[in-house]
Amino acid sequence: xxxxxxxxxxxxxWLLICFLSTGHISGREKEPADxxxxxxxxxxxxxxKKTMNAKNERLYREKLTxxxxxxxxxxxxxxxxxxxxxxxxxxxxxxxxxxxxxxxVFTGEGANELDASIMDGKTLNAGAVAGxxxxxxxxxxxxxxxxxxxxxxLVGEGAEAFARQEGMDWVSPDYFFTKRRxxxxxxxxxxxxxxxxxxxxxxxxxxSIRNEETGKFGTxxxxxxxxxxxxxxxxxxxxxxxxxxxxxxxxxxxGAGTYANNKTCAxxxxxxxxxxxxxxxxxxxxxxxxxxxxxxxxxxxxVVEKLKKLGxxxxxxxxxxxxxISMPFSSAGMFRxxxxxxxxxxxxxxxx
Length: 352
Ligand code: ASP
Description:
Elements: H1 3-21, E1 37-45, H2 54-76, H3 81-93, E2 114-120, E3 125-132, H4 138-148, E4 153-155, H5 156-165, H6 179-196, H7 201-207, E5 220-225, E6 231-237, E7 258-260, E8 265-271, H8 273-278, H9 281-292, H10 296-310, E9 314-320, E10 325-326, E11 333-340, E12 346-348
Parallel strand pairs: 3-4
Antiparallel strand pairs: 1-5, 1-11, 2-3, 2-6, 5-6, 7-8, 8-9, 9-10, 11-12
Helix pairs in contact: 2-3, 3-4, 9-10
The structure holds aspartic acid (ASP).
């Protein structure tokens, strides 16, 4: 074989290798990355080392680790990212430490109204519930909406009727009563009364939906990548304390508080929901990756900055199809953690 023939042959072989390595084989999809993992959050806000005592810090660390482990085990045993996300969120919903499920904050009327959502990045199916008062694990009801109904978002009594039809257990609204949250509501109410004379009613209602107790929001969320390369995301919350008039935040709004797409990433948000809805924040991260070619970190950090400019404080957890993770936030702290293939679970709270 002469020299130019050899060069031509080498060129063809090289082109073939490039073609095969990008997965462009007819009818075959790109191989999933040989990894898996889960990332969770337990809310963003003023979580400062000096205001957190050792006992509480330990309790949060233990519960976050338990949630991570519940999700990780499922992934390790070839379970789906949707299963892992639901399991991790349920652990946090069952704990009074977080503003979701058992530990939900009170509305202005003294009730607990829970919002949750879940999304499957493989199918782009999603389910969500808002304003439910008698469902122990709202994330599981969100999943039922995704899998057993033709709808995406069900609210209030309708959502609860659907839960009953599907055989899901109800709990009494008293189940969600915790002294700590009740006291926090009384405190904010007293302050609201004082301020009433000074401000217009509309402004007052807006100002008072925040967590006066600690300044933290406390919503929970999880995102996961499974061994088959499928992504999922979920979020669950009691919303913002002293919320009124059936207020619903970003957590059950697909694209705002939760988003997952195998093409890009899975995202769960926490923070001042109104800003996240107006910014379609979680979808924005995915869109920046899909249309602008940003990587996960660049996209999620950019959206935190965009929100900050509008006045929206909070953060995200995110994972992409290669197992890269990102956990940016603009608040003082964010309860968060991750468990990636073969590595010990890691939990963080402050800026570190
Ligand atoms: N995003 C939630 C909401 O606005 C609150 C939170 O993240 O803690 O309802």
